[in-house]
Amino acid sequence: MSALEILSRDPGSQARAGVLHTAHGDVRTPAFVPLATKATVKGLEPRDVAALGYDMVLGNTFHLFLDPGHERIGRFGGLHRFMRWDGPIITDSGGFQVFSMGHGTVADEIKGRAPQGADRAGAILAIEEEGVRFRSYLNGEERFMAPETSMEVQAALGSDLALVFDECTPFHVTRDYTARSTERTHRWLTRCLDWHAEHGPEGQLVYGIVQGGVYEDLRRESTEAVATSAVDGVAIGGSLGDRKAQIYEVTGWVTRDLDALAPDKPRHLLGIGEIDDLIRGVELGIDHFDCAMPTRIGRHGMALVPDPDHRWRVDLTAARWKDDETPIMEDCPCPCCAAGFSRGYLRYLLKARELTGLRLLTLHNLAFVQRVMTDLREAILAGALAETAAALRAGASPGLSARG
Ligand SMILES: [Zn+2]
User: Which pLDDT tens digit goes with each residue over 88-137?
Assistant: First the structure.
């Protein structure tokens, strides 16, 4: 039986709305999953994240393996108890972070993001059939991660959804490399499932990861290999292309095949989460997403606003806000706007590097994304996705469903 209970399917697209049942409670889908990479949603407490309406957060196997270590978190009773989050947790397998070190700019290519200092300092030493040998970015120590290691770490963390260890193939490698790497990812999928069947914690769901780069035949082969295996869900990873049209096309190949091969299994789109990507992803039949965007841009002084011409964002560090007494959004119910904090005050806090400024922007941005997701979900349930998607794309303020 699928962990995902589909409540409604949109007749005009592949979209579905439902409830994902996990060992630590339900996740209303489609859902955005905020990053708690290092066992915290940066700047927030778990009660803040829950109050924003989020059901699930995403922790990172690679970072927590290196520091503070999965054995230590295990002694604390697992990641839920360690970080005091009672709800569902998904853990990334670590494949993306390990391979980002070796493949140079893969992360930037796929996610359109600036290099992250921490991931850059480490180095990959060898990619072998057995696993990956790399140098820790923390202390230069040599470490090894095999598919079994990743599953063992995720078992100790006690996450509700574990992702299998994969090679995240970048955009700039050849088709031949992508083909060989995708085949290895499938062999690693089998090893992960074998390890989990014997040692995995009861109730932990396992998602396979579809690779295959931007090649339709490789993506379709990978989709079939993952969808027909013993996984509980399917994640879509790797390079989806360098343009939005291509990202949507590649995602569509996968979800179309999933509609035929595994229509009820839940689907996660890894690392994609711009506002227009979320709308399109939902239409393509994605159930949950994670992305650093809302939290990361907040820390760089950018706030999400209903402005599609400027990628739904405004730079609050700009001088023009110095004397502005209005909130980020007049109709925003988030803790930042509802309390009346002005753009002028926020600009001042950001320029002065006051922690409160970063926290307030994170709250606003995550609240904005949550309202977009709630609008999409309510629209699917009401049979009105096309209208809602068109309104959001045209710059409607999210929260349409709450306003009736
Ligand atoms: Zn707000």
Answer: 999 999 888 888 876 654 444 444 444 444 445 678 888 899 999 999 98
Q: What angle do CA 21, 4, 54 make, to 5 degrees?
A: 55
Arithmetic mean of pLDDT over the chain: 94
The parent domain of residue 185 ranges over 4-291
Same-domain status, 227 and 371: no
CA of 401 to the centre of ligand 1 (A): 17
Q: Which tens digit of pLDDT belongs to each residue from 208-243?
A: 999 999 999 999 999 999 999 999 999 999 888 889
The CATH code of the domain that includes 11 is: 3.20.20.105
Residues 284 and 313 placed together within one structural domain of the fold: no
Domain tally, the chain: 2
Does 307 qualify as catalytic in the annotation? no
Asked if 92 is an active-site residue, the reply is yes
C-alpha 95 to ligand 1 mean position (Å): 34
What's the rounded Cα separation, in Å, for the pair 215 and 190?
A: 23
Centre of ligand 1 to C-alpha 194, Å, is: 46
Question: Residue 378: which of 51, 54, 29, 50 has the closest Cα?
Answer: 29
Cβ count near 122 (within 10 Å): 22
User: How many angstroms separate the alpha carbon of residue 376 from the centre of ligand 1?
Assistant: 19
Same domain, 138 and 46: yes
Give the model confidence (pLDDT) of 275-293 as tens digits.
999 999 999 999 999 999 9
Question: Exactly one of 10, 55, 92, 232 is catalytic; which is it?
Answer: 92
